[in-house]
TrEMBL record, chains A, B:
SUPFAM superfamilies: Nucleotide-diphospho-sugar transferases. Signal peptide: none annotated. This is 2-phospho-L-lactate guanylyltransferase. Homodimer.
């Protein structure tokens, strides 16, 4: 199954600005993208990068610098999402995604949604040619509505690994605890460690 | 399968103090407990409440006012968790738990862990008589270690519904978005609504 992976190259992960410099954020976002692409390939998806700037990577890619919603909808139109040719849309910051978790997206449903925290949509599979995305605001609710409007069935994938997009410093704790790839290695190399000294799990960084 | 549900009756959910009064927190915690017990029963578990004070509910219960770890370990000893008689331990604040999500705990493994955010352990199944819990700090890591120490195999359940324990105001957003039971009804009756006016999903409360 084709999997579109949107990637905003120019100003990634601004909510991590308290703990990572701009250059570190780009580098860490790149490591997360590598993990997502690797996990997709291992789960037999064909990843297709939808990037705001061309990336120096060995992966099919389309460059589109418009906002996420417009770019993804054009990609869905172009690839013609249908029952015969479903198209997945998987966010590039799912650093905990494993092949097993991603494989759960491929079971039936005109629209398959893996919700993210806060009403987000972290991964989708579209098998209905008229379904369109809307990532602004509570995209989860918008996508339920959009599916209903075109008569598409919806299936939800209850995966914590897919629900965890990495946006904020506390999400780095999850990557250190449960990550298995380049993103976790990146954090460890950058000096991040778990801090369990006060009975809850925090983050420290050595110099 | 027997399912122990620990419940701290006296001072629940202090991290919700910014948005709920003490009496509201007790009432909301009670609604969440109802949802967890209902979902467990619908998934063919036999719930057994492990409460710090006797609860006026039609459910088997043990009163034990010691800290969580000691009380659960005594309950595991008493119920004799084994391959023939596995015992589940399910937190009382999993307001998004569905029968389908809980059923995923019952597949094999000496120790089955549904991790929570921040290194927590939101649900467990124990089939090994020597395994003991430790809920202090990063319990997820402690439980992996405890399983290894007694030679118990570990299986993880990747469920976002089980990973979402309701501790903080932002968790109420998840209950409004994805809850299906008494907890969501409680929040709606208390005047809580989703606020998507600024492009992200927040919470408002009408008077």
């Amino acid at each position: 199954m084709r999997a579109i992976v949107p990637f905003a190259a120019e100003r990634p992960k601004t909510r991590l600005a308290d703990v990572l410099t701009a250059s570190e954020r780009r580098s860490f976002a790149d490591a997360m993208l590598s993990d997502v692409l690797d996990a997709l390939r291992a789960a037999d998806f064909s990843p297709h990068l939808l990037a705001t700037e061309r990336q120096d990577r060995d992966v099919a890619q389309t460059v589109d610098d418009r906002p996420l919603t417009e770019a993804v909808n054009d990609a869905l139109r172009e690839h013609g999402a249908s029952d015969d040719e479903p198209v997945a849309v998987v966010m590039a910051d799912l650093a905990l995604a494993t092949p097993a978790a991603l494989s759960r997206l491929t079971a039936g449903g005109d629209v398959v949604i893996a919700p993210g925290r806060g009403g987000g949509t972290n991964a989708l599979v579209v098998r209905h040619p008229e379904f369109r995305v809307d990532y602004h605001g509570a995209s989860y609710l918008d996508h339920l509505r959009a599916a209903r409007d075109v008569g598409a069935s919806v299936r939800e994938v209850d995966s914590w690994r897919l629900a965890t997009d990495v946006d904020e410093p506390e999400d780095l704790v999850e990557v250190l605890l449960h990550g298995e790839g380049a993103s976790r290695d990146w954090l460890v190399d950058a000096g991040f460690e778990l801090d369990t000294s006060d009975g809850r799990v925090g983050l420290t960084r050595s110099e």
